[in-house]
Each structure stands twice: as structure tokens, then as C-alpha cells.
Write a structure and sequence with these properties.
By secondary structure, the chain is of the alpha+beta class. It has helices at about 1-15, 30-160, 165-205, 215-285, 295-315, 320-325, 345-350, 355-360, 395-400, 410-415, and strands at about 330, 340, 365-375, 380, 405, 425-430, 435-450, 450-460. The protein has two domains: about 80-235, Methyl-accepting chemotaxis protein (Helix Hairpins, Orthogonal Bundle), CATH 1.10.287.950; about 290-460, Beta-Lactamase (2-Layer Sandwich). It is elongated, with a radius of gyration of 53 Å. Mean pLDDT is about 75; it is low at about 1-30.
Length: about 450
Amino acid sequence: MRRLLTLRRQRSSGTAPAANDDAVAAPAGSSAASDAIDGRAVVGRLAQQASNVGREAAEVRGLIGDALAASTRQSEALKALMQQLQQVVQAQDAIGAQSGDSRAAVERARSAVQGVGDEVAGIVDTLRAVADAARQIGQIALQTRLVAFNASVEAKRAGEAGRGFAVVAEAVKDLAGKVEGSSKDIMRTLGELDGRIEGLAAEIRSDAGSNARPGAFQSALADVESSVGRIDAAAAGSREICGGLGAQVSTLDAETQRTGRSLDAAQRRSETFLQLSEQLIEIVAGSGVQTADTPYIEAAQRAAAQIGALLDEALKSGAIGAAELFDEQYRPIAGTHPLQHTTRFVALADRLFPQVQEPMLQMSPKVVYCIAADRNGYIATHNRKYCHPQRGDLAWDTANSRYRRIFDDRTGLASARNTRPFLLQTYRRDMGGGKFIVMKEAAAPITAAGRHWGGLRLAFQF
């Protein structure tokens, strides 16, 4: 190419080298024809290089996008971890506060129990006083029986005159015997009760100044107090660990955010390269020079015109109204994931679009899909091989149930809203299961009744 430009400059300046005697004069028109051929070859190579650059830019952009998404997920996970750590610290603070309250409660219980022990000791003293009184009653009853016995003997000696006194003496003796028996029962019961209460008092009382082994109740209180102390110490140690971990997570989150910003900037720069390559390809394609993309661009334009003609006919025949055809009230279909929607023109799309979309798949093995999208990226009817009902398997549904969905990503929205004669884009398509392929997409606008309805998207592999 440089040689051709140099020859042209030399010819225009009159300094072109003269042909020698052995040279054969070329026809006058052969130089122009050669220049045209060379120019087309250069443009063709330029288109090929731009295509390669676009492919690499799309791949790099996709990888950066994956890394950016991973960085965003990491940042969100770290923020969630920070919140959880804060909740743990709050819970540990609450444990510390409750531990202090528990120790205070143990002290109050110890004081209360000590008071109960003192009261029990008083009860023991009272019971012993009752036992002494019962013994005295027993002695009195014994003496009364002796007196009654003597009175009975004297009454018998008195004969008939002492008979009434003898009856009284017998009754007093019987009563004294019952009193003595009751007194013995009381003393026996008091003895048992005294032993039990004395044991309880020994268990409850705790003499700080004594070397005696503390009672079981006091030992239990001491165990509780010790356990509470260990819980408080463990919570304090955990708070310290969480504090250090929180600082490290905060630092890591800051680093992740910086990485995310760097990746975002890199993605924007890769977007610039991708757009530049696409613009070069469009310039070449628009120049009239045939490239490998030309057949797909022309096919997309033909298909867009066919879809537009079908929509015009549907409007004229009254098969659908303009309000229904340009309906943007996308109603979610319950229970679908990925989310699907329905509109008032889906029945018409199901009836008309396949007759244009399906034959386009046969133009080349490289064609991946041919679909009509409204200006918001909504795909009412996809190719039949992608129009399977959802199964509940997200990966399978994402790849095979692509109809009734809105694709408002960079490529999808640009194709749907393009109003130029054609738009050629390069992008990386997610095939599911971590598999990606880099493709091109030729898009042409679809109009109905003179209004921009959407775009025809024809995707093909390199």
C-alpha cells in the first residue's frame, strides 16, 4: 500500500522513474485496477484485524466482568461478615453484662441462704426448747400416774366409801398415761426433726472464719460463681479475637473495594477498545467492501424488513392494535426463574415470528440464533430450540428456556434500540455451567406503522 501511495505521489509530481528499454508498457487502466484491488485487500485485512481485536476485547471484557462480579460478591460477603462480627461482639457484651448480674445474684443468694441458715438455727433452738417442755410434761405425767396409783390404793382400802374416788383416780391415771405417751411421741418426732434441721443448717451455713468443709449448697453456689467467671473470661477473650478479626476484615474489604474500582476502570477501558473495533468493522461494512460479516448483516436487514412487513399487515388487518403491539407492561409469570414475562403481543409473535426466524438458522452452521426483540430487549418468541418450558433447574432453564424474557444487557439493549441501518457487535455469551463463547451479532431495526418497534438480532460465531 505504501508503494502504491509513493507511486501516486511520484506520478503527480512528475518524478516517476522512466521505464527502461526492457520494460513492457502496462495498459493505462491497469494501474487504477491494481490500486482498487490492493485497496480492497487492505480494507479486507483491516476488517479482519478489527474483528480479531474485537474478539479479544470481548473476551478480556468478559473476564474482567467475571472478576468484577467476583470482587463485588467478595465485598458483599465481607460486609456481611463484618455485620456478623458486630453481632457476635454485641452478644459477647451482653454475656459479660449477664455474667456480672449472675455473680451479683449468686452473692445475693449466698446472703439470703446465710440468713435462712440463721433462721434454721433459730428453729433448731426453738425445737429443743419444745423438746425440753415435752420432757417436763412427761415427768409431770409420770408423777401424776404415781399419785393416781396411790390414790387408787387408798380408795380400795376405804371400801365402799372410797369407790367414787377410786373411779376418779383410775381416770386420772389413764389420762396421765396418755399424756406421757403423747409426750414421748413428741420427743421422738422432735428428735428426728431436730436431726434433719440440724443437717440442713449445716449444709446452708458457711463460716468464713472456719476451716470446716463448706456445705453442699455453698459448694454449689461456689461452682456456679466459678462457672460464671469462666464464661465472662471466655467472652472477653472472644471479644478481643473478634476485634482483631474485624480489623483484618475491614482492611481486606478496603482492598477488595480498591480492586473492584480498578477492575471497573479496566472494564471501561476494554469497552472503549471493543467499541473502537466495532466501529471499524461497521465502517468497513458500510464502505461496500465485502467482508466475512457482510452476508450476516444483509440477512439481518432482510429478516428485519420481513418482520416489519408482517407487523404492518397485522395492524392493517386488525389482528392487533397499536397499543397491544407496542405494549410495555411486562407482567411477570409466577414461579419462573429466570423470570419470564408476558405482554399483549406474545400470541401474535408466536404466530408470525417463527416463519422468519427459523429459516435464518439454516443459512450457516455458524448462526446461533435469530430473534426479534422489542425496544426494551424483550424476547416474546425465541427460536424453537430455546423455547422449552422451565424444569426448575436453573442452569438448564437459563440455557434452554430463553423466550418471554428481557435481555437488557449491553448487547441486547443496544441491538433492540439501534435505529441505524445495521449494528455489528462482538460479545461473550454465557452458555451456562461456566462455559462462554465469543460471538458476533448483526442487528437491524424493525419498524411497524412508521414507528421503531425493536430490532432483529442475528448472532453467529467467528
